[in-house]
Design brief:
Largest interface: A-C, 63 and 61 residues
Structural class of chain C: mainly alpha
CATH architecture of chain A: Orthogonal Bundle
Distance between the termini of chain C: 38 Å
Chains: A mainly alpha, B alpha/beta, C mainly alpha
CATH class of chain C: Mainly Alpha
Number of domains of chain C: 1
CATH class of chain A: Mainly Alpha
Number of helices of chain A: 13
Largest sheet of chain A: 2 strands, antiparallel
Number of domains of chain A: 1
Shape of chain C: globular
Largest sheet of chain C: none
Low-confidence stretches of chain A: none
Radius of gyration of chain C: 22 Å
Mean pLDDT of chain C: 80
Oligomer: heterotrimer
Low-confidence stretches of chain C: 351-378
Strand content of chain A: under 5%
Helix content of chain C: 55-70%
Chain lengths: 345, 234, 378
């Protein structure tokens, strides 16, 4: 039995090698077609879900952006990112003072302050974690696998701290019911959701400006291309690493907070978030910031649309299957175009 | 003035020793070429001098100062720049951005320097906003040279600048190297294309099996029968 | 290596002393004390099975599986569905129910045959799942496989919860048959199960040890130490790694089977990332990657530590007591980090073998700028 399994695997490998180029092109075309199909179905038949998906997608995008930057520059898969997002959400919860509301939003100016504080804490905290955990391993020449396992340890620690401090139960930023408002095309949106989307877009724009218009941002892209050449050129690679963590941590904080506004906070959710985050980053192409944004959006939209459409078999119609959709996307990408939409070969 | 000197350098990769005590000297404003068969340790020497590899024994002097074992970032600050053989540009950055990265450690306004460097390579200048990954092999090599010039180095270390280039490109690259040298930059390069590079050089060294074999002026090495037979394929 | 063995010995001694001491002190009776220890060892044995499975994947092959809980869960549910009889009530719905525990007539052996068949079934299904995941993911990068395994775990949990008819949803499966349970009175059953768990552990241990020394195992070792050379000699690297991954998953499946029969009932919530994946990584990191004895040692040390802190808990002032379980969680995470920083091979990781392995798997593979790696270039 083992031998036939091996033979099957070898056959698949051979098929891949023989028809690789053709398969790659076919896979790419197929993938883009599916994406177009998804959007068309969304617009035509599931507008509400499409819109929710865009909101959720923008949250995932902030997280996926951090993951792809860390992967591109530090060359390892950061498995603590989901818990870091959750941690950021909890810091904001702790920092949230005063009530009041800004206009139609469910929270007051205290939330803006809490967001900024959380971004700072997580940015600095990420650098600290790097100094204590990842840098020593890096200096020893540890492989990306070891770093990934270390990040698992960090994830466990973060989760435990959240459980210790805030307990395992679900929490909300603001209780009460917040009504949605009507918009054209039969779309219902809460004002909070518009805030979420606007904030996410604002941050994406800031990151874009950073990466393409500042010296440090270009150095980050350079290091992502070729870390050894960056060193040879004289770029201060440790400084680049520091900024990568600051940005990754800050983005994670905002993503977590926005997620908390959108739904709720719960320590156990952190690890599970890794699935849509990585699915988005991998779909877009690990290492490509634009890819992370596009990939995350598609994952967000897919999750909402698939689960919204009412068909009698799974995963349609069952909210519990949203992670399954992300997983499905991940497997699909790995099968047809592993380098993602914008990845380099 | 000897701008660069390597004295009895012993180095290699991990446990494996490649160089068993190699010495070279580069005088101010010289072009020095290092040739030899594969495995001789030519690239290893450059990397050790630049601090990419640890120097197990021996010493490296730059402008009279002992810089043995200092990391690349320090060398760059002192005025020594290195151009690797391959993967020597940042593919997803534009030409302009590549040059900007070359000037990363500069604190002053280097915009005029960018124009100056681009003027040296008009073919590349036309494509200043193209991503480096889309350039041809020759253009990339030019860009790599240009990037190293952004810091106005005293000496350039070039690892096989003509590698995998078409013959007309090779001529162009060597012409550019001569121009750069004329502007006052010392050059030490490792080359497989022994004939062309020796023609260009003031002096040359022949390395084999991790040791010095021959040295002399570019001309004398070109004319030497031994060199011709063993290394130039005559 | 001396220091490692010494620390290992001290750790085991300290933990054993602590557990025996405190439980003896707290137990109302000798019976209670012995019961407690029996349950403790049984749990260690079950965790050790998972850790051995992870060792085959990570220690021997360098694949990191962050979704161990998926195979754990698949194994547990598969064996339960195979050994249980069909549902006796319309409120309890699940597939399978092949009643292997009692339906085999004279071959029953008091449920032992059913148990073994259930465990084998668990192994097969886990193996198939592993195989399916490995096809897209293993060929690419280990990182991809890691995230894929997390995904599988999530998907299975959701399936179990959402599809009511599959495994009875959140209510779970109860009445999972226990082998040989009708041979003794219920309070004494735990001793039999201890024996069963330990025997399964030993069988797996011996099988892996022999596998490691077999030609197959030698090729795996060769792949670890010099992948390029092994590939050049014509071995299909992917096939070997796939086999190791599937084998490890099958072992985890068996662990799940042993677990579910021990528990008697399982619900989706039982299978958390923490107890199904995280803690097992801690066990392997502590005990020693690449060493089977280390895997078992790690299971003992980490679970022993967990149990010990659990024993201490009631003795602490009330304020600390409620949060202690999360402090333990924290320490598990720190344990992984600290082991990686201080002693990546764990307490018993064989330095000679593992260090070559560590050289390969823990060192960067990216070549220095401008040239291919190694001494062949000039």
């Amino acid at each position: 039995m083992v031998r036939s399994l091996t033979r099957a695997a070898a056959l698949i490998g051979w098929a891949r090698r023989e028809y690789g180029g053709l398969a790659d092109r076919a896979g790419t075309v197929g993938l883009w077609l599916l994406i177009v199909l998804l959007l068309v179905v969304g617009v035509v038949d599931a507008r509400q879900y499409l819109v929710t998906g865009i909101i959720v997608g923008s949250i995932i995008a902030l997280g996926a952006l951090g993951i792809t930057l860390i992967y591109g520059i530090l060359k390892f898969a950061h498995f603590a990112h989901g818990d870091m997002m959750m941690f950021g959400a909890y810091i904001a919860l702790a920092a949230l003072v005063g009530g009041g509301r800004i206009g139609p939003l469910s929270f007051g100016w205290g939330m803006i302050f809490a967001i900024l504080l959380s971004m700072t804490v997580l940015g600095a905290g990420s650098v600290a974690i790097d100094r204590v955990v990842y840098r020593p391993l890096r200096q020893r020449g540890s492989s990306t696998v070891i770093l990934a396992i270390a990040s698992l340890g960090v994830a466990i620690v973060l989760r435990a701290i959240m459980l210790l401090w805030w307990g395992p139960d679900q929490q909300l930023y603001v209780s009460g019911i917040h009504p949605a408002r009507e918009f054209p095309f039969d779309i219902m949106l809460k004002p909070d959701q518009i805030f979420i989307f606007a904030t996410a877009v604002l941050l994406m724009a800031m990151v874009y400006l950073l990466l393409f218009r500042t010296r440090m941002g270009k150095a980050m892209r350079a290091m992502s291309d070729n870390a050894d050449l960056a060193r040879v050129t004289g770029i201060d690679t440790e400084q680049v690493v520091m900024w990568t963590w600051i940005i990754g941590g800050a983005l994670a904080a905002v993503a977590g907070i926005l997620l908390g506004i959108q739904s709720n906070l719960k320590p156990e959710l952190g690890f599970t978030l890794l699935l849509p985050l990585f699915a988005g980053a991998i779909l877009g192409g690990l290492g490509s910031p634009q890819g992370a944004l596009v990939g995350a959006m598609i994952v967000g939209i897919s999750q909402e649309v698939f689960v919204g459409i009412d068909l009698p078999f799974p995963p349609f119609g069952v909210p519990g299957y949203k992670p399954a959709v992300a997983f499905g996307i991940l497997i699909l990408v790995l099968l047809v175009r592993p380098r993602g939409l914008f990845g380099k070969t | 003035m000897t701008v660069l000197e390597a004295r009895e350098v012993v180095s290699g990769y991990g446990e494996v020793e490649i160089l068993h005590g190699v010495s070279i000297k580069v005088e101010e404003r010289e072009i020095v070429t290092i040739i030899g068969p594969n495995g001789a340790g030519k690239s290893t020497l450059l990397k050790t001098v630049f601090g990419l590899l640890p120097c197990k024994r021996g010493a490296v002097f730059f402008g009279g100062e002992d810089v043995t074992g200092q990391p690349p970032q320090a060398m760059v600050r002192k005025g020594m720049c290195y151009v690797p053989q391959s993967d020597n540009v940042f593919p997803s950055l534009t030409v302009q951005e590549n040059l900007e990265m070359g000037a990363f450690i500069r604190r002053d306004d280097y915009r005029s320097k960018i124009e100056e460097v681009l003027a040296l390579f008009p073919d590349v200048m036309e494509r200043r906003h193209t991503r480096a990954g889309k350039l041809s092999g020759g253009q990339r090599q030019m860009l790599a040279l240009g990037r190293a010039l952004m810091l106005e180095p005293r000496i350039l270390l070039l690892d096989e600048p003509s590698a995998s280039l078409a013959p007309n490109m090779v001529q162009l690259v060597f012409a550019k190297i001569r121009d750069i040298n004329c502007s006052g930059v010392s050059i030490v390069m490792v080359e497989q294309n022994a004939r062309e590079s020796l023609r260009l050089s003031h002096r040359g060294y022949v390395l084999a099996m991790g040791q010095n074999r021959l040295e002399g002026s570019g001309e004398s090495l070109l004319e030497s029968e031994e060199v011709g037979r063993l290394y130039l394929g005559d | 290596m001396e220091k490692g063995r010494l620390v290992a010995f001290l750790a085991v001694a300290a933990i054993t002393a602590g557990i025996v001491g405190i439980s003896a002190n707290d137990s109302a009776s000798l019976n209670g004390f012995i019961s407690f220890l029996t349950v403790f060892i049984t749990t260690v044995a079950i965790f050790a099975i998972f850790t051995l499975g992870l060792n085959v994947q990570w220690g021997y092959t360098g694949i990191f599986n962050f979704g161990i809980v998926a195979f754990f869960m698949v194994g547990a549910y598969t064996s339960a569905l195979l050994t249980k009889g069909p549902s006796s009530s319309e409120f309890v719905k699940y597939v399978g129910g092949l009643n292997l525990a009692e339906g085999l007539g004279p071959l029953n052996l008091h449920g032992l045959t059913g148990f073994v068949l259930g465990a084998l079934g668990a192994a097969v299904v886990s193996g198939i799942v592993a195989f399916l995941i490995a096809i897209p993911a293993l060929r690419l990068r280990e990182d991809y496989l890691a995230i894929a395994t997390i995904g599988v775990a999530e998907v299975f949990r959701r399936l179990a919860i959402e599809e009511e008819g599959l495994v009875n949803g959140t209510r779970g499966l109860t009445g999972i048959p226990r082998p040989l349970h009708d041979l003794v009175s219920p309070p004494d059953y735990k001793f039999i199960y201890l024996a069963i768990a330990v025997i399964v552990l030993l069988i797996i241990f011996v099988a892996i040890e022999r596998g490691a020394r077999s030609p197959w195992g030698r090729v795996l070792k060769a792949i670890r130490e010099d992948e390029l050379a092994t590939a050049a000699s014509g071995k299909n690297i992917f096939a070997f790694r796939m086999q190791a991954f599937v084998l490890g998953a099958m072992i985890m499946g068996i662990g799940g089977a042993v677990y579910s029969a021990n528990q008697g009932s399982i619900v989706p919530d039982t299978f958390s990332h923490f107890f199904g994946t995280f803690i097992i990584w801690a066990m392997l990191m502590v005990g020693g990657s690449g060493s089977n004895r280390g895997a078992i040692l790690g299971a003992y040390v980490v679970w022993g530590f967990w149990t010990l802190t659990g024993l201490i808990q009631p003795h602490l002032p009330a304020a600390l007591e409620t949060r202690t379980s999360y402090i333990r969680d924290l320490l598990i995470g720190l344990l992984i980090i600290v082991m990686l920083l201080l002693r990546p091979h764990g307490l018993m990781g064989e330095e000679k073998r593992v260090s070559l392995f560590a050289e390969q798997k823990t060192k960067r593979k990216t070549p220095r700028v401008g040239a291919p790696a190694g001494p062949t270039e000039v």
